[in-house]
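Q: what sequence does this backbone want?
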């Protein structure tokens, strides 16, 4: 005889379901345990004062200044006691009124006022000045500016001397010289810029030998006239 097992008495039949439910329950309890927070039950009191020290009502003392009320304004009909009537019979010295004719001299004619010419000491370009400076020997030239420039070139060529120090070292270049012919015809304000000090020194020596000139004029007034002169130093 083969014994038959009752399927209702099989305990292994639902073990998988019970295991899944138990695992879910354990996970839920673990999560709640991790998320659980506990707070201390303490009362909060503001720092610096006790709750029992706060009064229910603040009494503000009343201060009486004892200020008297202002006096009433005086009535317009009341005459002050120190009022003294003015005697209208007394003679007063009247202020003297001067006639307008005494305040001014005889009328001045505008045409009689002399004109004052504004004198400026600013240099005037040699291309804009009415009368250019005259180089000695150009007094009778028709084009005095052209004669001035040609005389400058001849002066440089006549007095030119190549510096020995620059010749030995092969120093060449151009020296730009600027100067001003003042109101007396003298050479002033000499400035120069070149590639070497020896060349600048030679250019200054040439300019220093320039003669005194007739100053340039703007109208009938002598003016200062600037002039620039490039001097080229070149070895052959």
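A:
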């Amino acid at each position: 005889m083969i014994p038959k097992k009752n399927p209702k008495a099989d305990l292994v039949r639902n073990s998988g379901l019970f295991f899944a439910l138990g695992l879910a329950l354990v996970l839920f309890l673990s999560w709640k345990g991790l998320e659980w927070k506990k707070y201390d039950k303490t009362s909060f009191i503001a720092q610096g004062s006790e709750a029992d020290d706060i009064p229910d009502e603040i009494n503000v003392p009343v201060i009486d200044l004892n200020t008297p009320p202002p006096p009433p304004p005086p009535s317009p009909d009341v005459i002050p006691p120190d009022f003294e009537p003015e005697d209208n019979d007394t003679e007063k010295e009247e202020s003297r009124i001067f006639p307008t004719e005494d305040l001014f001299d005889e009328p001045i004619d505008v045409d009689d006022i002399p004109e004052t010419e504004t004198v400026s000491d600013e240099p005037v370009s040699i291309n804009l000045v009415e009368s250019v400076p005259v180089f000695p020997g150009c007094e009778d030239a028709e084009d005095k500016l052209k004669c001035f420039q040609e005389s400058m070139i001849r002066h440089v060529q006549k007095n030119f001397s190549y510096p020995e120090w620059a010749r030995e070292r092969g120093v060449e270049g151009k020296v730009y010289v600027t100067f001003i012919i003042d109101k007396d015809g003298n050479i002033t304000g000499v400035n120069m810029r070149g590639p070497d000090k020896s060349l600048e020194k030679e250019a200054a020596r040439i300019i220093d030998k320039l003669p005194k000139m007739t100053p340039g004029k703007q109208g009938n007034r002598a003016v200062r006239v600037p002039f620039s002169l490039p001097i080229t130093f070149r070895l052959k």
